[in-house]
């Protein structure tokens, strides 16, 4: 008796296509927000209208990243919480002492503050640590070197962010001078967080990460060139 012909289930056939469509939609949404923000900040007579959406854009980006994180386990959520708390507390120490990054203060753009630090800053540390940590995983090198590479990626993005942040009241530096200590402090804190990232056991793959890092880099680099 002939064997029945094996057929793939509809789920097996459509799942990759569905995932691809979801990814394209997420990329499109992020691109729309960043292009709109870029045009508004660069050419609008009222950039304050667009600046009010900065916290929303940050939350949207992190939310979309989480949507593409495989198997959001308790270990993953504990990692997220730890990085946000550490990132926030590091900024509190930085604001109050000037020892980590230099003397600076936060403006109104990043939203609600507690202890003189916007609550969104912890979310920002999480987004950057997560994205750069996953990007570094593509390199066939030991974890300690991956931590170095990821920390350098974070500092590289911060270099692009700084002129824009100062111009649009994200934060302000004493004497309007960005100190070298800021980048040294960023590198040190980023490296510690990346070592922690490599030690926590969760699935470190996300198809949206590279796009998020690239669109952020281009957004701040292009705005910085127009200042």
From TrEMBL:
Keyword terms: Membrane, Transmembrane, Transmembrane helix
Coiled coil ranges: none
Alphabetized Pfam families for the sequence: Caroten_synth
Domain of life of the native organism: Bacteria
InterPro entries noted in UniProt: CruF-like
Segments crossing the lipid bilayer: 25-43, 49-68, 75-97, 117-136, 143-165, 177-196, 208-226
PANTHER family: SLL0814 PROTEIN
Protein name: Carotenoid biosynthesis protein
